[in-house]
Specification:
Elements (H helix, E strand, L loop, with lengths): L10 H14 L4 E5 L5 E4 L1 H7 L21 H4 L1 H5 L4 E5 L11 E10 L4 E9 L5 H19 L3 E6 L4 E4 L1 H7 L10 H8 L4 H12 L6 E6 L2 E2 L2 E2 L2 E10 L6 E11 L1 H44 L6 H27 L8 E4 H8 L11 E6 L6 E4 L1 H18 L4 E10 L4 H6 L7 E7 L7 H6 L17 H11 L3 E7 L2 E9 L22 E5 L3 H13 L3 E5 L2 H9 L6 E5 L8 H11 L4 E6 L4 H4 L10 E3 L4 H14 L2
Parallel strand pairs: 14-16, 20-21, 20-22, 22-23, 23-24
Antiparallel strand pairs: 1-2, 1-5, 3-4, 4-5, 6-7, 6-12, 8-11, 9-10, 11-12, 13-15, 16-17, 17-19, 18-19
Helix pairs in contact: 9-10, 9-16, 10-12, 12-15
Length: 643
Amino acid sequence: MLNGNNTGLAGHDALLAGIRTLIEQTPSALAVLDREARYVSVSKGWLQRFGRGAGAFVGTVAGAGGADHPCGWVAAIEAALQGQAASGMDRRDPGPDDPGRGVFWKVWALDADRGLVAVSLSDVPEAGQGQADDRRYSRQSIHDITSAFGIGVIEQDYATGTTHLSDTCLALIGIGRDRIPTTEQEWMDRFGVRDVVAFRAARAQALDPKGDGIIDFELRPVVDGIERCLRLQTRVVFDGVGAERKPRHAIGLIVDRTADRQMEAALARAQRLETVGRLAGMVAHDFNNILSVILGNLELALPKVCDGDALTLLSHAMDATQMGAGFNKRLLTLAGGHGGVAVRFHLDAHLGQTWEIYRRVLRDDIVLEFQPGSPAAHVFADPAEIDAAILNLVVNARDAQVEGGRIVISTKLVDALDAADAKAGRGEACAYVQITVSDQGPGMPQDVAARAGEPFFTTKPNGIGSGLGLASVIATTQRAGGRFRIDTGHWGTKASMVLPIRDGEATQHVPQDGEIPLGDGEVILVVEDDPLVRETAMQRLEALGYVVSEASNTQSALAQIAEGEAVDLVFSDIVLPGGPSGFDMCATLHKENPKIAVLLTSGHASAAYRSQQDPSALVDILAKPYSLRELAFAVRRSLTAGH
């Protein structure tokens, strides 16, 4: 009966501990047994009834010690675990004070998955009292357990026409005892029955003497403006046999599955976002390849044009290509794409170019500011992932300020991951840079702040937040080797990513002016599966003064090198369908031909490819589309580093 209910207890041992604590305080004669009829827990009422201590029962098999002399109820355990509650009368009452009394027993499943059943015993002082005691004690026993786990109980007596709802049941459907429905339509409305026809058919089948007496239905009542998802499971008990068989009473359990449904919805949204991200990645890869061909040919054509108007047109076309590349990057960021590759980049310079993008998700009553404070800090991470993480934090800061306010993105240098690490002398001996998104909202309660990073946890209304945004920010921070922290109070909230600083120049640092470095006949092997992209890359490298050869995949490139072809640098795409990736080839060359330099490029690399990257190698990665200047400096850096 506990299946599907989120008890909040982790694991079998924790559940048993909770059950023992609950049962032990119950005044009714109640016991919990496992599938082998071993006692798990017994109530105060059970111990008083038999005049024995708990040690005489817990861990022992029912009846083995002769203290309880069970009759039919031990045999009913397996049936109860199959969903068939059983009851009966035992005239051999083991009570020490009045051995002549009868005892009425009832066995029902407490948790079928874990093989746990509950047994209740009640006195039958006079003939005919068994059914009354059965209802009274089973109600008390069931209510004691179910209320503790947030399960509602509803009982209906068909002989008297009375209906009883437990306090938990009333709370789940959001009514008081003075507002209990009196008509069928009121019941339907209060329970939020969406398919009235199906519900009536299920009820009619359960009440049919030839049916199974079971109703299993989903209810959707609206409580305090929020739709809940409840599961109603009811069993009807019959009297008589054959043509005389008729329903006597029914008992139902109502389990709140709202949290489960919200999690399922959040998972579905996350899967849709992942699909969108993958589709965006595919589009980005192909689009960036096209932009690479366009930009490359425009740059190659530029020196051959003398007409001033034509030069202006070519320049505008190249600017538009760069704008298209920027749009592609923002598309990946907003789609939550995590398919880029980690590079070493200047944090403040990067944020200075991208922070205004976040204005597009803000309302007019919110001001966004950027306060750079780490002028020399470089980090090693995927820039698109950092952008997506900051975007998530900005959206959270926006939602926290319902009446408008101010959001500040800031950076600063810190000496340790946090104050606790600094005080204890823990952590690496290196500097860190902290990226903080702060707001002026009301702040978070401490219990909310403690759970803020849990996947699917959200305080936003149903359908608004998935509860995955902050979890993804934490994952991004950890992938970059850092730590996430939240500082909140009545003044607002500060969410920070603390990342380790990587010494050295930016991976893609390119001087904006000055002469372009030219080659001196060095041999560059271009590895690219797209013929147009490969041809354009070769033409640009030749224009820079290099000797070029080509290969369409990793296997062909490595075979050419193995056959003795002289190669100074391999310029390879990362994503090469049908074979090893550019990262794989880089690892092979590093092991077998360490003198050959490597430069990688990509329009978009999925997480599967990104995971192959070795951060210690710090190989230059040139993002498509790249300019002739960017290509020239990247090749020169790679050749210099390789010698």
